[in-house]
Every structure is written in structure tokens, then in C-alpha cells.
Design goal:
Layout (H helix, E strand, L loop, with lengths): L10 H8 L7 H8 L4 H15 L3 H10 L1 H13 L1 H9 L16 H14 L7 H20 L11 H28 L7 E5 L1 H4 L9 E7 L4 H21 L3 E2 L12 E3 H10 L3 H7 L3 E5 L1 H15 L8 H15 L16 H15 L11 H10 L5 H25 L12 H10 L10 H31 L13 H10 L5 H12 L4 H17 L5 H14 L4 H9 L1 H11 L5 H7 L9 E2 L2 E2 L6 H13 L4 H24 L5 H26 L8 E7 L1 H5 L8 E9 L5 H19 L10 E2 L12 E3 H11 L2 H7 L3 E5 L1 H15 L7 H17 L18 H15 L11 H10 L5 H25 L11 H9 L7 H23 L2
Parallel strand pairs: 2-3, 2-4, 9-10, 9-11
Antiparallel strand pairs: 1-2, 1-5, 6-7, 8-9, 8-12
EC number: 2.7.7.89, 2.7.7.42
Keywords: ATP-binding, Ligase, Magnesium, Multifunctional enzyme, Nucleotide-binding, Nucleotidyltransferase, Transferase
Catalytic activity: [glutamine synthetase]-O(4)-(5'-adenylyl)-L-tyrosine + phosphate = [glutamine synthetase]-L-tyrosine + ADP; [glutamine synthetase]-L-tyrosine + ATP = [glutamine synthetase]-O(4)-(5'-adenylyl)-L-tyrosine + diphosphate
């Protein structure tokens, strides 16, 4: 039995009951054994014998003599449980599979269904006959489609199957419309109604089981006629669902909320004024299917010109990009590898790519005005918009995936696109046999299916990018003096523009430069660029991304590892394109620290960008600088390592691998290391053999002291010194001042790197005061002359570099100033409020929007930090946890001490994080410090992406920012204003 593919324990007994145990039945049994599921087929035959009763002998005899019947019957029974059940319920239908069987033409199908509808009593009474007729026609098609798995019957081409299913759907819709019209109107003439097929039915590539997408169009007429047409359409949908398939009218104007039936005039008005890009994309497959044929043709003639100009709409590119992202995000990760339709390298990838290319070039080339995916691929290949080989390969992959989809749906006549679980060996083996997979010497049929699935999915993913970009690269290739046949300059620019490139002429120039010549680099770039350009088109600024990639490629021309890494490490290449097309800050760093690109790869513990000991990196920076006796070379070494760390941190941030607090912490660590390295180098250069005349400490202030630096932050510091034993104070201060001034000037020397500004303006007496003071001088000043704003500034003072013991003594001294016993006076609190009001009135830059300025705007960083600091001034004398330089940690302490409501604490924390993230994102995108969020447009979308906002929707990002900061401002007014 095993040799016959029969594993059920009763298989032999079942064969005996059928009498299939003689030499005359050997050939019949071998045919049975080749069914996709021989046991299921045998059980169905037994049930069929019982259903036929006295008529079994005729079928039994026919099976012995009619080889084609054997092949069709066993194949369909072993492939489809649902069609097996239909055959048991209507046993005489086996005769449809006997002898010379051919598929009827569309007009013949329509005649069959019209006759059945006309003969029926109407309404629900018509359904059984129509349902039986529909299943009979499915049975014949399926039997012819799968027969080659049993006998060497001809394989039905995919296009034939899809067209016949669409013709069958047309006939069924027409019959349902006829019955519905009679039910609603009786003997009265019904209003003219056209049924427009959409989707796969419209394209004549329907599945075995699929919703049939339609749009209903009524002739322009009286309101009463429209109401009657709507009743007919609703009744038709109900009848179709009972007898054939679900009819889905959700593609109509306004979707499910819109009118079920509109007049032609109303349709035209909607598409002229309100339709979105996806609605024009859907219309590409529109086709009159049933009802008023002349009205259907008028509908097509009126709307098709709009379809082929849709790519010129202002919102075409962002809508297309949003559609792509939406498809990818709708699919749960756990089924992505099993999804034939929506998974990576699946059917939707093919269909979306083909339709986009049709929309882009269809206005100028009517040969692309075809509905089916297979025909469109052929037309795109013939027109030179994609390579002919690519068109053929994509067609083969598409038809293979559709074949698997058809087999899965046939099994139970259920709508599905999901492959069986990988460990469900029996289900996968059945699918392999049903899909004509044959052993190849190395693998059995199951192994062949698994290998083919991997190959086809990979090929679709690869070709998906090539379809868009390979012809562009060929058009600027090294062997062409002009442009390739079929892809002229205008077509190339049009395609790039549709893919998101605002400067298509410049983009072509960059492509020409990257692929020019016959060198190995040019050849590798030709292989890489289709995929890289596809990823770039998903970034906020593909034009800048392509320019940055060209600059980086030129810079790395002599580094063989660069292109090799991009070729072999897909994750590295994809992440790099995201960075290059989003940020103006990071690419310049990568030009000078390209080794960071290798950290874009995944390591054993996650992304290598994050697998770095930040404190260890800081120590390495200081140690590297210490190897140089010349301070200029020492600081250059420190700059080099800083550059590398900035590139790493910013890349990890932009790629969503670090949260904002960790970004700030790591940036602070880098700044502190640079300060320490510079201070050490300058101190060595200014110290004689007798030793330094003073100890010098650097006190971090502002965001540096709070450990909350951003990309655009300066380093606010105070310098404090202590004379060495036996050294006069004036000598010590003069020496320390020289060292401090050299640290500031040498770090501040202009360079290609982000600025290194050391700001000492928060020192006593500001810019007019001495740069360096002794500890005693600071204590004297703060005890006698400290202004409220200076006390407030000291709340963020923290030792960061230099002599740490001296820095600690400074902090102990200022604790008495910033956290005085009994707290600060009411006058000081009032003065702080007055100063804040003045800052609000005077410091906002001219022309800045107070609602979207991340630092000084409504609910921005200044609002949150001044509020937290005022609470520290008022309560830190009795709440030790408020002795903290971090805004967020101080907020935690405020909440724990219940100084304000926990909900208010959350609003302030959310606003601080939102504003900090936005401020950092602004620098990443624009490449320079700025605090003002831009208005709607590409720049705002890029900021949204850099801030980690889903889908890079600048409008939603801005709405969220305004909402969060508005709520925080209400808390600030309540708490800070008293």
C-alpha cells in the first residue's frame, strides 16, 4: 500500500470493497497513487460509489477504459475536499469529466447561467440550481487544471485558469443580476445598471476563491431609478454570496461609507475632485462584467484618461510610498514567511511594482494600458521599461506563487494565501504533489517545493528592485552613448520622479558617475544599485541620499571592503541608505570615519552599533590623545575618536537603536573625554619639570553638568584652580588661565567636524569676569554677590574633568549656595519668575514660531527645566533626592515626594523627552544646530523619521508635538507661576 501512496490502515479493505484488486486494476491503482493525496481520493471514491448506487458500474467501467477520466477524477478528489463533497452531493457530475473535455467560451458560460436563471422560480429558489451549475463548472476547470499530477494531461496555463475563472464570475454575476432584477422589479423594466469588475476579476486573473470586487454604475436618471438600482445591487450581492462568492463593493467612491450605486455623472465628479492615488491604481483593472454593456463602456471611457494622468498629481509620490509601507506593516511578523500574497517577495510585491510602472509610463505609452499582471509585464518588457529577461523571470515567479495559492484554495474552497506551517510535513507534501513538484534526484517532491519557494521568493525580492532601477542603470551604462532603447531621457526622469526623486536629472548624473567605466567598482555598483536605490526611495530625501552615496563611494574608492560589505551584508546596506537619505549630519562624519559603517552589521549580541562600552571608548579616547606630546596632535587624535563616536551614536539613534536618554548620556561621555584629553595635553605642554603650579578642575554646567547633551549643545563649564604648595595665587591663576584659554581655543578651532565650543559665560561676572578663579575666590563671590540666576545655574554644576578631588570640593562648597538651609528666599523665587518672563519675552529669535521652538517655545525645554529648577530651589533643602543635576531624575524625585501631581510630572517628562528628541532630530536632519521645527513638507517628514515617528508622517509628528507641549505648558503655568 505504501508504494501506492496509501497509508491509511483500511486502504486495502477499501480497495477490496471497490473490487480494485485484480490484475485489470493495476493501471488504475497506479493512477490513484499519483493523486496529491491518494488516501483522500480513495475515500472520496468510496463515498461516490455509495452515492451512485446502481450507477456505480458505469463509472467503474469508465475508469478502466478512460485514462483522461481517471487522471481528472483522482487528481481533483486528491486535491479538493470541497469539490469531492460537491461530487458526492451531485454524483452524476462525474460525466462532466469523461471523454474529450474542453472549457466553454465566455459567451457559452453566460448562456448557461442565463438559461438557469431564466428557468428558476426567482429569488432564493434560484440559488440551488445556480450554485450547482457554478460548482460543476469549477469542478471541470479544477479537474483539467490538476490532471497532470496523475496522468500526463496537458498543464493548463495560469493565464487560462485565471481568465476562465473571471469569465465564470462574469456569467455568475449576470445571472445573479437577472434574478435580483426580477425579484425587485417583477415584470417592470429595471433601471439600467452596469457591474464593473475590479481587482483580479477585472484583470481576468481571478483566483479559485476570492472576493469579486465590483463597482455599480447607474445611468443618469431620476432619484427613484437610483434607489431601485441600489436595491437590485444589494439583492444581487446577497444572492451571489449564497450561490457563488462574496461580492465586495468597497472599492467604490468613499468606500463602504459611500453610496452603493452612483450615476455615471456622480462617479466622474468624484474622481475629478476627491479620489486618492490608490483609487486610480484600482481603476487600472476596471472592466465591464455584467449588466448594461454600453453603460459600462461609457464608464471606462470617462475614467480611464484620469487613470493615466494620476502620476502627475501633487501627492502621487508620498501616497505611493505610504501604500508600500502600509502593505508591509499590515502583516504580522510571525506569518510573514508563510504569506504568499503580502509577505516579502510575495504576490503583492509583483503587482505593486508592475502597477506603479504602468502608472508612471502609461500616459505616454498606450501599450501599457492592460489590466492583467502577466500582460503588463510583457508590455513593460517590450517597451524597454524593464529588462526582457527580468520580465520573463518575474512572470514565471508570479505564476508559480499564484499556482500555490490556487492549490491551497482548492483544498477546501476557502480564501487563503498562507502556506502550511514548515513543520507540517504532510500538508507541505500534499501541496508539493498538487503543484506538480517532481523529485529531481537530489530531493523528493517536498524538498523540491521548499527549494523552489526559497528561490522564487528571493528572485521576486531581487527583481522587485530591479524592475524599477535596472533599466535606469542600463540607460546610463558605460556601453551606451545615449540612452537604451525604450528608456529615453524623459522616461528615465519620469520614473525617478515617481519614485521620489525631486531632481531626476541630477540623479541620472550620479548614476552615470557611479556606474561609469569598465572597472570592477562600476560593475559591482551596477549589481548593488537597484536594491540601494529602492531603499533610498523610501527615505525622506532620496536625492540627498544618492548624492551622499556617490560622495561616500568616491571617498572609499580605494577601500575594497566598502562595496564588498554592502554586497554581502544586506542589513548594513539597508541601514546605510536610511541614514544617507535622512541625515545631513551623519554622512560627513562617515566620510572621515568610514569604519563605523562596519558597525551597521548585526553581531552575536545585537547590532554592533550598540555593542560598545561607552565608558571604555571614553577611556580609549583619553589614552590615545595621551600618546602625543604635541597638544595639537593630541587634540587631533581626540577629535578623530570623537568623530568616530559621534558617527556611531548618531547612526544608532537614527536607526532606532538608542533611546533619547541614552543618546544624551553617550554624547555627554564623549564631550567629557574630549575635555579631559585636551586638558591633559595642554597641561603637559605648559608644565615644566618642577610640576604644575596649580591643580585645575573643569566643572560642567547646563546640559553638560546634567549629563543631557544633545548633538548641537556647547559645553558650558567653569574652571577652578588651587595653587600648588608654595606657589603664589597670582602665579597659579595666571598659569591656569593660560591652560584654560588654550583648551578653549584649540578645541574651538574650525574643522570639518561638528563644533567643539567650550562656553564659560556662566562664570561669576560673566564674560567680564576672570576665566579661572580659585576655590576660595568662588566661595567669596557666591557668598556675597551671587544673583538668583547664578544660584539657579549652579543646580546643574558637576565635576567633569581635571582634578576630580578639587572638583568635588567645589561641589561641596556650592551645595551651601544652591541648597541653602531653609531654602531660598521668597524674593529669590520671585526674581527667578521675573527673569523667566523676560526670557520668554526677549530671547525667542525674531520670526520664530513660539509653538514649535524646541528650546524657548511653549512647553519646550526651557519651560520644563526652569520649572524643575524652581522646585529644586524651593524644596531641595529638605528633599535630598533633589540634589541632582539631571532634569529627568529630578522629575522622578519631584514625583516621589509628591510635590506636584504624578500626572503633571508625566506631562512634563513627556514634553522634555519629546522636545529633546525633536531637537536632536533637527540636527541629524539639517546637519547644524537649530531649535525651530520646520513647517509641513519634506524637511518636517525627515525630522519625524529621525525622531522615530511611525511612517515618517510629519503632520502627525507635529500634531503630537503641539499636543504634548501644550499640555506641559498648562502644568508650567500652574507650577512655575505659583
Amino acid at each position: 500500500m505504501g508504494r501506492l501512496g496509501l497509508v491509511h490502515k483500511n486502504a486495502q479493505a477499501d480497495l477490496d470493497r471497490l473490487g480494485w484488486n485484480t490484475d485489470a486494476h493495476v493501471e488504475l491503482l497506479w493512477s490513484l497513487s499519483r493523486a496529491p493525496d491518494a488516501d483522500t481520493a480513495l475515500l472520496a471514491v468510496l463515498r461516490l460509489r455509495e452515492a451512485l448506487d446502481a450507477g456505480w458500474g458505469e463509472l467503474d467501467k469508465a475508469l478502466l477504459t478512460d485514462r483522461s477520466l481517471r487522471g481528472r477524477l483522482f487528481a481533483v478528489l486528491g486535491s479538493s475536499l470541497a469539490l469531492g463533497d460537491h461530487l458526492i452531493a451531485h454524483p452524476d457530475s462525474w460525466r462532466l469529466l469523461a471523454g474529450a473535455v474542453a472549457l466553454p467560451r465566455r459567451d457559452e458560460l453566460i448562456a448557461m447561467f442565463d438559461a438557469e436563471a431564466a428557468d428558476s422560480a426567482g429569488g432564493a429558489a434560484a440559488m440551488p440550481g445556480l450554485r450547482t451549475l457554478y460548482r460543476d463548472r469549477l469542478l471541470v476547470l479544477a479537474a483539467l487544471d490538476v490532471a497532470s499530477t496523475v496522468e500526463n494531461e496537458p498543464v493548463l496555463p495560469f493565464t487560462v485558469v485565471g481568465e476562465h475563472l473571471s469569465d465564470l464570475a462574469d456569467a455568475a454575476l449576470g445571472a445573479a443580476l437577472q434574478v435580483a432584477s426580477r425579484a425587485v422589479c417583477g415584470d417592470t423594466e429595471p433601471p439600467q445598471l452596469a457591474v464593473i469588475a475590479m481587482g483580479k476579476c477585472g484583470a481576468q486573473e481571478l483566483n479559485y476563491v476570492s472576493d469579486v470586487d465590483v463597482i455599480f454604475v447607474a445611468d443618469d436618471g431620476a432619484h427613484s431609478s437610483l434607489a431601485t438600482a441600489t436595491r437590485i445591487a444589494g439583492e444581487m450581492m446577497r444572492l451571489s454570496a449564497d450561490a457563488f462568492f462574496e461580492v465586495d463593493a468597497a472599492l467604490r467612491p468613499e468606500g463602504k461609507q459611500g453610496q452603493l450605486v452612483r450615476t455615471l455623472e456622480s462617479h466622474v465628479a468624484y474622481y475629478e475632485r476627491w479620489a486618492k492615488t490608490w483609487e486610480f491604481q484600482a481603476l487600472m483593472k476596471a472592466r465591464p462584467a455584467a449588466g448594461g454593456a454600453e453603460l459600462g463602456e461609457r464608464y471606462i471611457d470617462a475614467l480611464m484618461p484620469m487613470v493615466w494622468t494620476a502620476c502627475e498629481r501633487e501627492d502621487f509620490v508620498p501616497e505611493v510610498q505610504a501604500m508600500r509601507r502600509r502593505v508591509e506593516e499590515l502583516l504580522p511578523a510571525e506569518v510573514r514567511s508563510r504569506e504568499l500574497k503580502l509577505g516579502t517577495g510575495g504576490l503583492r510585491d509583483v503587482e505593486f511594482a508592475v502597477q506603479l510602472l504602468q502608472l508612471v509610463h502609461g500616459r505616454n505609452d498606450e501599450s501599457l494600458h492592460v489590466a492583467s499582471t502577466v500582460n503588463a509585464l510583457a508590455a513593460l518588457g517590450d517597451g524597454g521599461y524593464i529588462g526582457r529577461d527580468d520580465a520573463a523571470n518575474m512572470t514565471a515567479s508570479y505564476e508559480f506563487l499564484r499556482l500555490l495559492e490556487h492549490r491551497l484554495q482548492l483544498q477546501r474552497l476557502k480564501r487563503t494565501h498562507l502556506l502550511p506551517e514548515a513543520d507540517d510535513v504532510e500538508a507541505m507534501r500534499w501541496l508539493a504533489r498538487a503543484a506538480h513538484m517532481r523529485p529531481d534526484g537530489r530531493h523528493d517532491s517536498l524538498g523540491v517545493l521548499r527549494e523552489e519557494l526559497k528561490r522564487q521568493s528571493h528572485r521576486v525580492s531581487r527583481l522587485h528592485a530591479k524592475l524599477f532601477y535596472q533599466p535606469l542603470l542600463e540607460s546610463v551604462g558605460p556601453d551606451q552613448l545615449g540612452l537604451a532603447a525604450g528608456m529615453n531621457a524623459q522616461a528615465a526622469e519620469r520614473q525617478l520622479a515617481a519614485l521620489g526623486y525631486e531632481g531626476p536629472q541630477s540623479a541620472l548624473t550620479h548614476l552615470r558617475a557611479l556606474t561609469g567605466g569598465s572597472s570592477r567598482r562600476g560593475r559591482v555598483q551596477q549589481v548593488l544599485l537597484p536594491t540601494l536605490l529602492d531603499w533610498l526611495s523610501d527615505t525622506p530625501d532620496p536625492d540627498a541620499g544618492l548624492l551622499n552615496y556617490r560622495r561616500l563611494s568616491d571617498e572609499m574608492a580605494d577601500q575594497r571592503w566598502f562595496l564588498g560589505t554592502l554586497r554581502d551584508e544586506g542589513a548594513v546596506a539597508k541601514r546605510l541608505m536610511h541614514v544617507l537619505g535622512t541625515s545631513a549630519y551623519i554622512p560627513d562624519l562617515l566620510m572621515r570615519a568610514p569604519e563605523v559603517i562596519q558597525l551597521y552589521a548585526d553581531g552575536p549580541n545585537g547590532p554592533k552599533l550598540c555593542d560598545v562600552d561607552t565608558e571604555g571608548a571614553a577611556r580609549s579616547l583619553v589614552a590615545s590623545a595621551a600618546r602625543h606630546s604635541d597638544p595639537l596632535r593630541a587634540i587631533a587624535a581626540a577629535r578623530s575618536l570623537r568623530r568616530r563616536e559621534l558617527a556611531r551614536i548618531a547612526s544608532a539613534d537614527l536607526l532606532g537603536m538608542l533611546d533619547v536618554t541614552e543618546v544624551c548620556r553617550q554624547l555627554t561621555s564623549v564631550w567629557v573625554a574630549v575635555l579631559q584629553a585636551a586638558l591633559d595635553a595642554v597641561t603637559r605642554a605648559n608644565t615644566s619639570e618642577g610640576g604644575a603650579p596649580a591643580r585645575l578642575a573643569v566643572i560642567g554646567m547646563g546640559r553638560l553638568g546634567g549629563g543631557e547633551l544633545g548633538y548641537g549643545s556647547d559645553a558650558d563649564v567653569l574652571f577652578v584652580c588651587q595653587p600648588a604648595d608654595g606657589v603664589e595665587e597670582s602665579v597659579a591663576v595666571r598659569w591656569a588661565t593660560t591652560v584654560a584659554e588654550q583648551v578653549r581655543s584649540r578645541l574651538g578651532t574650525p574643522s570639518a567636524d561638528p563644533p567643539l565650543e567650550v562656553d564659560a559665560d556662566l562664570r561669576p561676572e560673566g564674560r567680564s569676569g576672570p576665566l579661572v578663579r580659585t576655590l576660595a575666590s568662588y566661595e567669596a563671590y557666591y557668598s556675597q554677590w551671587a544673583q538668583p540666576w547664578e544660584i539657579q545655574a549652579l543646580l546643574r554644576a558637576h565635576r567633569v574633568a581635571g582634578d576630580l578631588s578639587l572638583g568635588e570640593r567645589f561641589l561641596l562648597m556650592v551645595d551651601k549656595i544652591r541648597y541653602p538651609a531653609g531654602g531660598v528666599s521668597a524674593e529669590t523665587v520671585q526674581e527667578i519668575r521675573r527673569i523667566k518672563a523676560r526670557v520668554d519675552a526677549e530671547r525667542l529669535p525674531r520670526g520664530a514660531d513660539p509653538n514649535t521652538h524646541t528650546k524657548l517655545g511653549r512647553g519646550g525645554l526651557a519651560d520644563i527645566e526652569w520649572t524643575v529648577q524652581l522646585l529644586q530651589l524651593r524644596f531641595a533643602h529638605r528633599i535630598k533626592a533633589l540634589h541632582n543635576t539631571s532634569t529627568l531624575e529630578s522629575l522622578n524625585a519631584i514625583g516621589a515626594a509628591e510635590l506636584i501631581a504624578e500626572g503633571d510630572v508625566e506631562l512634563l517628562r513627556d514634553a522634555w523627552l519629546t522636545a529633546t528628541k525633536a531637537r536632536n532630530a533637527l540636527v541629524l536632519v539639517r546637519g547644524k544646530p537649530t531649535d525651530q521645527l520646520p513647517g509641513p513638507g519634506r524637511l518636517l517628514n525627515a525630522v519625524a523619521v529621525a525622531a522615530g515617528w511611525p511612517e515618517g508622517d510629519g503632520g502627525e509628528f507635529l500634531d503630537n508635538y503641539l499636543r504634548v507641549t501644550r499640555r506641559a505648558k498648562a502644568v508650567v503655568r500652574k507650577v512655575f507661576g505659583g
